[in-house]
Amino acid sequence: MQPTDYKMLLEQAKAITAGEPDLIANLSNLSALVYETLNDVNWVGFYLTRAPNTLVLGPFQGKVACLRIPFGRGVCGTAATTRETQLVIDVHEFEGHIACDAASNSEVVVPLIVDGEVVGVFDLDSPLVGRFTQDDADGLTALGRFIEQLNWR
Predict the structure, then answer these.
(1) What is the pTM of this model?
(2) Across residues 64-92, what is the average pLDDT?
């Protein structure tokens, strides 16, 4: 499998969001862009902080997903609590993993922080154990830093 060109992906993300102020429209297109660009992923999307310490399903590509995830639960909730990207080689070895799709076996979750507050997470799942590498986590974290610059108001 050829490594993903995250520099090119970031440039594409900037191009498709340029001039569009609507957050949901931008997150929708970004989830589609990443879903279509990365190989061997079965879910790409966002959970947004919509209640105190609770992530609520946002724009995504893939199968039906969990609607709400408390901070501190599962990979997404852990990313929100720790404010650190979570790279999980095998989700079945992650204590407290929430199985929204039984076909998912590895995951990367990037917390999105704006003005010191966790506004959501950027979540990617794969049916392959070990699909994501540290290079993927770093590239997706860089994309997350760009996403934080979108219009969250």
Answers:
(1) 0.95
(2) 95
